[in-house]
User: Which sequence fits this backbone?
């Protein structure tokens, strides 16, 4: 999502809501996991259907307030857990009939408007960017990582062409002063040779730092693996992404698990090896022109989903290996 546009939007819109509800079809009842509860946009819609249960997760403790309100109306059908979705497998769900698991990645309007979270270069807040349950902030990263590490973060997570100069100028500046949000924007402005009048100069670096601080790539990869484990036969795994790296990972995950034989090695009960997912459509579902005009940040949303073909929870995937480079960059944070 583009932080500039988000700040202009006045309220929270659940992205692709109609399309997602049509795919997961809660009218038939069952248990659903909303991995990114946020303001509860998807959860509320699912709970509107009788015979549904929702287990909702969010790493941001602020979501708990909305969850508590919802609990008053749906005490027996709704549970909220303040955990990261990569820890989905700790929910001990083996015997639940999970019919759908949904991820709506990124952050919400409320989060980007919160100066304490410091997600936006326009919010005037601290250089923070922690969505919740983090181990370090953007300020730690900017003030403690070395030049090469910062360069890689900006290059790989932000696709920032001027990553090298920006990293170099950060190191120079931080030997004199601690770098704040405002200071970082000034360094980026000074470092960029080419000005882009459509997108703010700081957009890419801020996106990169947010991904790094929240380990968004590792979260996504391990979230997908664990979701595919707990889902039952016929269950739907659906993901809304907002930038090309997220979409590349989700696309690869579904493609490889619907084309490569992935479940025989671990499953003595399967006679022939088989694939884990059925893909009904290869192209992602995107918002209508009407949705984009009402909620401009939705323009970059892509929804992909797969239907699990078996109850087996052990399967082969090379997704970690494939995106190891990104996971290794996120692991620079281990020393902070
Ligand atoms: C785009 S918002 C979801 C909005 C929601 N679908 C709605 O309609 O209200 C994304 C949410 O996911 C949460 N989130 C992001 N990464 C997460 C993770 N790794 N584990 C759990 N929650 C996460 C964020 O805190 C945020 O509340």
Assistant:
């Amino acid at each position: 999502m583009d932080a500039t546009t988000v700040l202009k939007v006045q309220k929270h819109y659940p992205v692709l809501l109609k399309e997602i509800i049509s795919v997961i079809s809660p009218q038939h009842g069952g248990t659903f996991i909303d991995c990114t509860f946020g303001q509860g946009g998807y959860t509320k819609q699912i709970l509107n259907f009788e015979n549904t249960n929702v287990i909702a997760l969010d790493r941001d403790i602020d979501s708990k307030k909305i969850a508590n309100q919802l609990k008053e109306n749906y005490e027996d059908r709704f549970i909220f857990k303040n955990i990261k979705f990569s820890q989905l497998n700790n929910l001990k769900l083996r015997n639940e009939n999970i019919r759908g698991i949904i991820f709506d990645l990124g952050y919400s309007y409320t989060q980007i408007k919160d100066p304490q979270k410091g997600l936006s270069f326009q919010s005037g807040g601290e250089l923070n960017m922690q969505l919740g349950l983090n181990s370090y902030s953007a300020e730690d990263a900017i003030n403690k990582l070395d030049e090469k590490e910062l360069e890689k973060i900006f290059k790989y997570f932000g696709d920032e062409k001027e990553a090298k100069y920006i990293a170099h100028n950060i190191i120079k500046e931080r030997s004199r002063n601690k770098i704040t949000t405002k200071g970082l924007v000034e360094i980026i402005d000074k470092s960029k040779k080419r000005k882009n009048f459509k997108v703010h100069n700081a957009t890419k670096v801020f996106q990169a730092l947010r991904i790094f601080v929240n380990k968004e790539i590792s979260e996504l990869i391990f979230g997908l693996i664990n979701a595919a484990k707990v889902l039952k036969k016929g269950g739907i795994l659906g993901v809304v992404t907002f930038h090309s790296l997220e979409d590349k990972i989700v696309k690869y995950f579904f493609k490889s698990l619907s084309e490569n034989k992935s479940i025989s090695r671990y499953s003595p009960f399967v006679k022939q090896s088989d694939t884990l997912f059925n893909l009904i459509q290869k192209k992602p579902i995107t918002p209508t022109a009407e949705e984009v005009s009402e909620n401009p940040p939705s323009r970059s949303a892509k929804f992909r989903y797969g239907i699990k073909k078996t109850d087996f929870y052990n399967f082969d995937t090379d997704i970690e290996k494939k995106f190891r480079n990104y996971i290794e960059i996120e692991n620079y944070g281990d020393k902070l």
